[in-house]
Design brief:
It is a single chain. This protein is α/β, with parallel strands linked by helices. The protein is built from 16 helices and 13 strands. It has a domain of 200 residues: NAD(P)-binding Rossmann-like Domain (Rossmann fold, 3-Layer(aba) Sandwich). Helix content is 43%, strand content 17%. Strands 3-2-1-4-5-6-11 form a 7-stranded parallel sheet, sandwiched between helices. Strands 7-10-12 form a 3-stranded mixed sheet. It has a 3-stranded mixed sheet with strand order 8-9-13, with helices on one face. Helix 6 runs parallel beside helix 8 and helix 13 crosses helix 14. The structure holds NADP nicotinamide-adenine-dinucleotide phosphate. NADP nicotinamide-adenine-dinucleotide phosphate binds next to helix 1, helix 5 and strand 7.
Length: 322
């Protein structure tokens, strides 16, 4: 019997790459599934590498609806993610997301559409945080998918990427200087953290439990952690670097200045500021518990990456860490 095809958008990127990887390697999946990996450039190394590993690599552009329909044709499941940060244009991201939904809805073989979503922050905050465009745009696509009668969708909600921390949010401002983590929020704010390499574990659980997760949100996070705990675990992993490590809460305007000093446009600095205030004021997942998602993962829950493991293995610190 022919195997089911999962079409993976963003297959050369962080989330989609992890989904492609697990469907190419996990025996519980390879028995029934093959991978169709979508990219704009089938000639680049990451695309060729996917082909070498057994994926069918196809070209499509999220700005070209006909190419999306062609890429989805004949597949049973679709994993769809868009990259807001490439254009920083929410309207464009919504158009891309709706084109993905429309293509899946028009393809009779598609039994499951998995959308990499985020919450509507404007709504969650009653308008107090109106500028977190990359969340609201993904939520608009989720809402569109929910509006289509009988459209079989599940919404994967990725947590805060751990890859934002090493060398980026936790960094030395001068050589051999103290390691500092800088955010505009209290050190007790809960942050659901996520290693993008774990995306596949969540999507595996979504696909294997299709009937019970249709219409649901699945929360992609290992656990909630606070900035204070992030620093104390950093100190455990790197006792030498940890001696001077500290959390530095800065006022909102100072945080924006930091981002703008690094070349970010004003609207994006405001967007990221509000994105962080979300953790403290309303909750990144609106206070949702991770228990139901973790129960769905079964034994795979133990494989979720911890902050300590991510810190130990990260290549992004820029110096040798001790
Ligand atoms: N940073 C965080 O903490 C965080 C947390 C939650 C969610 N997110 C969201 O994660 C999303 C990015 O996901 P990611 O990290 O997996 O992305 P990524 O690693 O930057 O990769 C982007 C992927 O999207 C594909 N892509 C982009 N534009 C495309 C287009 N026009 N047509 C076809 N494919 C296109 C790229 O494919 P090719 O280049 O090969 O064509 C690539 O595979 C963003 O929208 C962001 O808002 C981020």
């Amino acid at each position: 019997m022919d195997k089911n095809i999962i079409t993976v958008f963003g297959a050369t990127g962080a989330q989609g790459g992890s989904v492609a990887d697990i469907f190419l390697t996990d025996p519980a999946l390879t028995i029934d599934w093959t991978v169709r990996a979508v990219t704009r450039d089938i000639q680049k190394d990451s695309s060729k590498n996917l082909a070498k590993r057994g994926a069918e690599v196809v070209a499509a552009d999220l700005n070209d609806a006909a190419s999306i329909r062609k890429a989805i044709d004949g597949s049973t499941a679709v994993f769809a993610v868009t990259n807001y940060w490439e254009s920083m244009d929410a309207a464009k991201e919504i158009t891309q997301g709706k084109a993905l939904v429309d293509a899946a809805a028009a393809t009779p073989t598609v039994k499951h559409f998995i959308w990499s979503s985020l919450l509507d922050v404007k709504k969650l905050s009653n308008g107090a945080l109106p500028n977190v465009y990359h969340f609201d745009s993904k939520a608009a696509v989720e809402s569109y998918a929910r509006s289509l009668p009988d459209f079989p969708a599940t919404f994967f909600m990725p947590g805060f990427y751990l890859s934002n921390l090493p060398g980026q949010t936790i960094r030395q401002f001068e050589p051999n200087g103290p390691w500092t983590m800088t955010f505009p929020i209290k050190d007790s704010a809960p942050m659901p953290y996520f290693d993008t390499n774990d995306t596949g574990l969540f999507v595996k659980a979504i696909v294997l439990n299709r009937d019970s997760v249709l219409g649901k949100r699945i929360y992609g996070a290992t656990e909630y952690i606070t900035p204070k705990e992030i620093i104390s675990q950093f100190q455990e992993v790197f006792p030498e670097a940890g001696k001077t490590a500290a959390y530095n809460q800065v006022p909102p305007e100072a945080y924006k200045s930091l981002l703008k000093g690094a070349g970010m446009p004003d609207f994006a600095a405001q967007e990221l500021l509000e994105n962080f205030l979300l953790f403290e004021q309303f909750g990144y997942f609106g206070g949702a518990s991770l228990d139901e998602t973790h129960a769905l993962l079964g034994e795979d829950k133990e494989k979720l990456t911890t902050w300590k493991k991510h810190a130990r293995e990260s290549k992004k610190w820029g110096v040798e860490m001790k």
